[in-house]
Specification:
The chain is mainly α and 540 residues long. The strands form two sheets. The protein has a three-stranded mixed sheet with strand order 1-3-4. A two-stranded parallel ribbon has the order 2-5. The longest helix has 29 residues.
């Protein structure tokens, strides 16, 4: 008691920031004295000792103090530096180093004043939080900073981080977003630990064990787009003059022995066929499209922009780049992601015909579901006619019992058309489509296509639930006896499964009487049980 007050660095920084805001040119008292200064405190004192916005930004540049470091400051102190960045962004000078223009978010000035090679190597990229002394967050099995180029790491991280003014306020004092983004990066190779495989085994056995480990790590890499799509949903403002960035899916690994990377390892086509990349590439495209967000004054993306992002039919330059098939699958995923956000409403009919005429299954699936999501609950007749082309049970039948359309539609595309019908007629209680979906559930599965049949029945069950959602007690659907038929499908016996006859469900409002089939095997009954349960849960 009665002694000198303890040194308070926060009070001095607050006083310095208040004096700079009030444009006081008086003498700034010296900072408090400590027996030892940490690097973080020295940087803060050097930055807050400056009085003008330009000098503050230059001090941040010299101290390698990036925007992520600002997240660690209290709002009362961080606001002072954010204000300086905004002022310099509005009135930049022409004699600053190239990295300063990146710091104030003026890449146009950087490209105008400097050559590309002079602008590389930012000292305070998005990964630089503690001015070069911060160690990157790592996880087991991922590449370390010494294995990859720092600039490519920053670019891959920027493609995942959902930075916005709201996230900067909500997560200003921790790095949970940075950690999640590092976990969801798919552009970095997985690290295969091989230190325990060097003794006691032959070289051939060691290579086989390395490939087995890489294959296990690759399963996680291919699942990352699902999480990234949810993590970055509508976080990137998309301009009509920009292309949609698509992060790559890295399928090779790095061998690490005693904390040093010794080389790359690739999987042979026999262990990992290229066809297995089709669906992961599709999900990667969906995740990239879900990140897009249009400006407030723009209602949707244009048809020209959608087609402009279609990949060209050019082969990859090397084996590590995605193949043309993967790029087509990614673009199909982009179409689905845009449809889920309602942007396929602007797709021109001629463009739609071009896509469907390619007869690419994933593209057709994405378009049909995306169009249904874009026009959800509208009961649009034009889209109904398009879906009928892909469903034999919705087509008009000729005198010979064959559908008028001669298209060979893959089973998965038919399932997508059924799901799209459910979205299109969501909550409408449409009798004809409800009866159609109920009959689709009841079709007896073929023994040679059980998995495709299960997908078909499940889509029909979900579509029936969407059509009849909240309409289970409607008088218009009363004579269909939905509850009774679904209950019979949920039973342990095969009673209630019926065989559809080749008759157009749009030619008559009533179903043709059919005969019940004998009981099926347990697996086949499970198909209808699953679909009926989904329909009953949604329609209840």
């Amino acid at each position: 008691p009665g002694g000198p007050a303890p040194a308070d660095l926060h009070a001095w920084l607050t006083y310095a920031a208040r004096g700079a805001v009030q444009q006081q040119d008086g003498h700034l008292p010296p900072p408090p004295r400590f027996r030892s200064w940490c690097a973080w405190s020295r940087r803060l004192v050097a930055i807050f000792s400056e009085r003008t916005a330009s000098n503050i930004v230059l001090a941040m540049y010299r101290c390698s103090f990036g925007k992520h470091a600002l997240q660690l400051l209290p709002p009362s102190l961080g606001a002072h530096l954010w204000r300086a960045l905004r002022q310099c962004r509005a009135r930049p000078r022409t004699d600053w180093p190239a990295a300063v223009y990146r710091l104030i978010e003026r890449p146009d000035m950087q490209r105008t004043l400097f050559a590309p090679e002079d602008a590389a190597g930012w000292p305070f990229d998005s990964d630089s939080v503690h001015g070069g002394e911060h160690a990157h967050l790592t996880e087991s099995g991922r590449a370390t900073d010494s294995a990859l180029d720092a600039q490519s790491q920053s670019q891959s991280l920027n493609s995942v981080l959902p930075w916005s003014p709201i996230t900067e306020l909500r997560f200003a004092r921790d790095q949970r977003l940075l950690e999640v983004a590092q976990c969801l990066r798919s552009t970095e190779p997985a690290v295969v630990e091989c230190a325990d495989l060097q003794t006691g085994v032959s070289e051939e056995d060691a290579q086989s064990a390395q490939r087995a480990r890489l294959l296990a790590l690759l399963q996680r890499t291919l699942a990352l787009p699902l999480g990234r799509g949810a993590f970055t949903l509508r976080t990137e403002e998309t301009h009509l003059t920009d292309t949609l960035p698509l992060p790559d899916l890295c399928t090779y690994g790095l061998l690490r022995l005693d904390q040093t990377v010794s080389g790359r390892i690739h999987l042979a086509p026999s262990l990992f066929p290229p066809s297995q990349m089709e669906w992961p590439s599709f999900h990667n495209g969906v995740a990239a499209a879900l990140r897009a967000r249009v400006r407030e004054h723009e209602s949707t993306l244009t048809s020209t922009w959608i087609v402009y992002n279609k990949p060209p039919p050019t082969p990859p330059l090397n084996g590590d780049e995605p193949t043309t098939t993967d790029r087509v699958a990614e673009h199909a995923g982009v179409l689905l992601g845009l449809g889920l956000q309602g942007h396929l409403r602007s797709l021109a009919v001629t463009r739609l015909y071009t896509y469907l005429s390619e007869a690419h299954s994933l593209t057709s699936i994405a378009l049909l579901i995306g169009l249904g999501a874009s026009r959800v609950g509208s009961c649009d007749q034009a889209l109904t006619n398009l879906l009928a082309v892909h469903l034999p049970s919705m087509q008009t039948f000729g005198s010979g019992g064959a559908p008028m359309s001669h298209l060979e539609v893959p089973p998965l595309v038919q399932s997508a058309a059924i799901a799209s019908s459910g979205l299109l007629y969501l909550g409408s209680g449409d009798r004809r489509h409800a009866e159609l979906m109920l009959d689709e559930i009841s079709i007896a599965p073929n023994s040679d296509r059980r998995q495709e049949r299960e997908c078909h029945a499940l889509s029909a069950g979900l579509a029936l639930g969407m059509i009849c959602i909240g309409k289970g007690g409607s008088e218009a659907l009363h004579d269909l006896q939905l509850a009774q038929r679904l209950s019979s499908l949920l039973g342990d016996s095969g009673l209630g499964l019926v065989q559809l006859q080749p008759v157009s469900r749009f030619a008559s409002a009533t179903a043709t009487p059919v005969q019940p089939l004998p009981p099926f095997a347990d697996h086949q009954v499970h198909v209808a049980n699953t679909a009926a349960a989904a329909a009953a849960a949604a329609a209840a």
